[in-house]
Amino acid sequence: MNTTSTLLILVGLFFAGGIISFVKQKMPSSLIVLMVIASGLCLIAGVMRLEVWN
């Protein structure tokens, strides 16, 4: 695992925690959808950068 993939996965998990918090606070659904997309993209990018796939 290199630092970039680790950082992307951690940011994705941070956004996932933010999603849970925003849902509990009843924030606007458009903001929650944006966070879901950002979290998903970070997690996917982090997993794809792992050197397991080479």
Structure, explained:
- The chain is mostly helical.
- It has two helices and no strands.
- It has helices at residues 3-24, 29-48.
- Helix 1 packs antiparallel against helix 2.
- The longest helix has 22 residues, at 3-24.
- The mean pLDDT is 92.
Report a brief summary of the structure:
The protein has 54 residues and is an all-alpha fold. The chain has helices spanning 3-24, 29-48.
Largest sheet: none
Helices, by number, come to 2
Supply Rg.
13 Å
3D shape? elongated
How much β-strand is present in the residues? under 5%
Mean pLDDT across every amino acid position? 92
Q: Characteristics of this structure?
A:
54 residues, mainly alpha
Question: Secondary-structure blueprint of this entry?
Answer:
Blueprint: H1 3-24, H2 29-48
